[in-house]
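Q: I'm writing up a methods section and want to include an example of the input and output format. Could you take the sequence below and give the corresponding predicted structure tokens, formatted cleanly so I can copy it straight into the document?
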Amino acid sequence: MAKQNMKKKPVDFIIFISVITLVFIGIIMVYSASWPEGMVRYSDGSHYARRHIRWALVGIAGMVLMMNIEYRIWKKLSVPIYISAIILALLIFTPMGVEIKGARRWIDLGFTTFMPSDAVKLGSIVFFAAFLDNKKERVRKLFDGAFPAFLLIGLSAALVYIQRDLSTTATVAGTLFAMFFVAGMWLPIIGVIIAGTGVFAKYAIFSEGNEYRQRRILAFLDPFEDKLGDGWQIVQSLYAMGSGGLIGVGLGQSRQKFFYIPESYNDFIFSIIGEELGLIGTLFVLLLYAMIIWRGYVVALNAKDAFGSYLATGITSLLAIQTFINIGVVTSSIPVTGITLPLISFGGTSLVIYLAGLGILMNISRTSNSDRRKVNENNN
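A: Here is the clean output for your methods example:
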């Protein structure tokens, strides 16, 4: 009886339908939000939407593939996956590196550009899950567990920080710390984490060359004080969210997307959702994210082995943290920083990597114990 319960099942339906719905919403909203810029730059309002659809199809194909590959194979491949992620991150300093909008965060593959930080996210999760699984109970020890874990977290975060991407650095570090916590991290270490985070934040914000981050913090404290300067983006986002009201101004009817909000189809697409679909639309999107996060942690709790549990925790935490940061920025709950809204924002690399990761999560759900009490009863 126990073996029957361990057979592969269909993927978690709630995760699957929520992911597909968010991707579909993303296609519609990218089409709406990018129309003005597409017309001005390419004389084609559907330019960005067509590119986004192509990447969505690639991502969904990758998700279906990952759903059907036994997740434990990634433990065997964790070292080459992580090394590949490191190499990709360092390629931005070679002639392949491309600077876009003042930031050198992309590499040119000839037929498209690729954002290495997205590969670092998933590669770090896979490698750290394998690391924690190998350590087992030793993860609670200071020098055998905590110290090497901190080194791995620091290395992964540094690979993103060298690209001058503080928000993604925080996302990667937060995700890996969540995995470390689930693995049984010695709780007093939390104090060390808080202190270390404070020291790093002070350096990242107040050191020479990071004056733009200081201005963002000042703009966050009172965006309307400099609403034509550093506060412009967040003020326009708040105008968009506020004007949407309960049901929105109507799909495709946004006014703020006409060059009032920079990156309206990317980092600030949630504000366009708020304007066009209103409070009801934004709450529906939040509900879909909440369903994925809830079910993702359920999958982690019921995984048949520790590696699957850590892997599911990492993928779910990555989605949760990045979503929180993006929506926090758009609603002026945290200072402005550039980070996409998972599964919805325009951006091929991010969309494909997230869909691949969620495909792995759904594969874990196929072999998890959906009801541990039932399994225990059958074993008895």
